[in-house]
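thought: fold this chain, then report.
action: predict
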Amino acid sequence: MVVVVVVVVVVVVVVVVVVVVVALVVMVVVAVVVVVVVVVVVVVVVVVVVVMVVVVVVMVVVVIVLVLVVMVVVVVVVVLVVVVVVEVVVIVVVVVVEAMAVAASAMEVAVEVVVAVVC
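observation:
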């Protein structure tokens, strides 16, 4: 009878120890899994934030480049307009000078005609 009680007590103690050890192992495994999941989530969040920052920086650079291109195009258009206006002014001045030369020639011919008629 004492042997049976001792065997039952030993079996119960062994079962309790095994259950406790298994519970501790399960708790450690769950803790490790939770830590791994948290680390993965943190890494994913960091990667997403880095990607968003890179996208924002690229967008800002693209906007700056576009603004610079627009400014260059505006400057080129203004320069072309100024060149065209200067060319038009030069042409008008040349036409006026030529017209004055023609008028001077006509006046010279008129003076010669008057001189020829008078003399």
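thought: worth noting. DSSP finds one helix and no strands in the chain.
final: tokens above.
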